[in-house]
């Protein structure tokens, strides 16, 4: 492979990783995606398989030519969304399509809808459906990579296949479904896909060496006067078979070399000191050992760090007034082995969107986020409570590790200055201190499971209207970032974000709730001059309500 071809291949892969929408569709789709887009790791509507399956099936159930029995099966799939109802709907649609025959124009629609439903069943926990999805993505990856015409798409399909294969390893149909976007899960498989590609490159190199050695033994052109050739005697072999890692490195912008990402981190090493739960207790998950056994001794994935430049630009595109915040946090990503940011306080006057900024940072990092409200907190239960009490529980970060299945995530403590200063039942601000020191966070004693846990990969971000009520020891452990307020020049972006929030809350798409037009924005600009987002939100809601009142009735 020539250097020119390698560079072009690298550029294609890098472009696909940075902007997969060409293949996988929009990151926040307003309507169900095509099956091909799902094979690349496409998202569900509202990042929720339940909302997606209803949006997919409801219009179909209204069409003429659909039998009453099939309509009932489709309604059950969105009324009671689970792996069983999704699989039943898939089979019913395939049977109906086969019965209609190829000449019926409705048959193709039925067949395409049936092909999409295994992705919903897999999301609801079906290992069989996840295996089917993995096989489809792997077949697509092989087609694209072997042809050499679209290696970027091939890479995305490969990591999607690995994600579904991981889900297929265990049946999760009895686990409560929790909506979550695919993109943050997919990034965890970049390193796995890279390792697989490197292994295949090494296998290809070995096979090439065996072929040359066979030629030597037969006296072919590869024979040398000195006898058997060694690996280093095979001219151009390294150049002809570059690893995918080398391709990505060649395409990456010149920057300080990043340390290789860790394969994972064991958050909880052992629970053997705890009594074994009774069978009925294990089913109820009311035993500390039964509750946390799923992560005992298991390396949890460390989600990789995003490119610092991409992190800043993507965040600033969504919220340009927050660019200084994104730029400060991006400093922690340079050379980082995984996504993490140092303990940070986001401070600004009320209503300027600190909690939204916290969520935007977590989204840019590609990490799950858990928000803990400090307002009115009058105890230290954040750090866990002893199992001798009936209300005993693990610490909030440990519970999050169990829920999310990763070692690095964001814990946001909202309105930290409003935590009670009373220490009779413990203090939230005191409890936070050891979590914010990486050395102590590597072996934090959890009173519920009575064992040390490693939470050093967790990112902690607090919000506050003012630091006046925050104790000095806590302030000393935090990087203080002032959150700028949006100005009038940001109105189009802010208004679009607010309409998108309202749209998501109401379960509508852009067809039913479009963005504000120029006249509406001009009217808003007369009443909002920047600053707090709360009055702007009320203005936007009033404007949308006015649309509904003025809409013609038919």
TrEMBL record:
Transmembrane segments: none annotated. Residues 279-300 are annotated as: Disordered. Signal peptide: none annotated. The keyword Protease applies. InterPro entries: AAA+_ATPase, ATPase_AAA_core, Lon_Prtase, P-loop_NTPase. Residues 340-488 form the AAA+ ATPase domain. Keywords: Hydrolase, Plasmid, Protease. GO terms for biological process: chaperone-mediated protein complex assembly; mitochondrion organization; protein quality control for misfolded or incompletely synthesized proteins. GO terms for molecular function: ATP binding; ATP hydrolysis activity; ATP-dependent peptidase activity; serine-type endopeptidase activity; single-stranded DNA binding. It holds the Pfam family AAA. Residues 280-296 have a biased composition (Basic and acidic residues). This is ATP-dependent Lon protease, bacterial type.
